[in-house]
Hints:
Rossmann fold, six-stranded parallel β-sheet, 15 helices, 44% helix
Amino acid sequence: MKLARGRSARRACSAGVSPALCVGKKPPARCRRHGATRRAGCATMSRKLALLAGSGEKVPARILNGITIRDQIYAELKQELAALSGDGIRPGLAAVLVGENPASQIYVRSKIAACEQLGIGSWMRTPPATVTTDEMLALVAELNSRDDVDGILVQLPLPPQVDTKRVLEAVDPAKDVDGFHPVNLGRLVSGRAGLVACTPAGCMEILRRSGIPIEGADAVVVGRSDIVGKPMALLLMHASATVTICHSKTRDLPGVVRRADIVIAAIGRAAMIEADWVWPGATVIDVGINRITDRAEAQKIFANFPAKLAQFHEKGSVLVGDVHPGVAEVAGAITPVPGGVGPLTIAMLMSNTVKAARLRRGRGQTAPGSLTGVAAAKP
Length: 379
């Protein structure tokens, strides 16, 4: 993308964006709307554009550190847990891990470690990889009946012989801390309080706690999964963003993404979102996490990032999100991989567990860090 220089770059529209830059994206009316409703967002964008246009240098994006935000939420949850402890309540989470999938073991152990860090009770059940659907349903029924278990986490994927949907739908909606049950999804659609999927809720925490304007923003969600894409779009819509969901059949995907103020990348393909897909100054939330083990692929993605290539050569693998690392030189703000969305997914699981414990005992307040009390959107 070529950025204007000289006198044309210094002439700004009502939002502070130069005409040459603005025309390539959207008509001037968009900028007038930004000036009225998103001054902070446009200020960030125009500063970045001015630096790019005036100097020709690459200006790195502001890094939205998920670990810092996670720690803020944990501090709030510790206060809430102390208050519940005074009433004799200790929230508890039961995790079900089937088989010996190494990645799943790492994920579940990190969640159990978070419970221990916060003082939340935790149990791990480990059926063998040969488990049947009926055996899984019996295990879920047992956990549903236990009063000391406030949240049930069934780690995915399950073995192919197990009916995953039947198992997830068997979880008591009041204990569905993953937010996958149709009842909780229906509550999210209608804007009613419930337990929201952890990764989308974590993305919303990053946006709000980082001061990213959402109301009136154009948001593009790349990916339409039940776990991330769909609930993410609903949360953004309830926050009064104008939302577009993209997928494998979307026409001119780069062009659609380029119109966004907020990009949520959850497509599951390494480095798919390229730098020239992103409008300068946009906020990019990278949900993906992909391990690169192929040398040619690593050299292609990290050709201009010698530190990452060195890491690959040293370890034989390297992590990358669904967003190409070059996007950080264009975006106004971006989440890193790792250390961005991942820590918030676990934090929101902890928040949902505390919320479930409270709701099950008739204490209906919203847990610190929780976005499950979703207000219905205004017309």
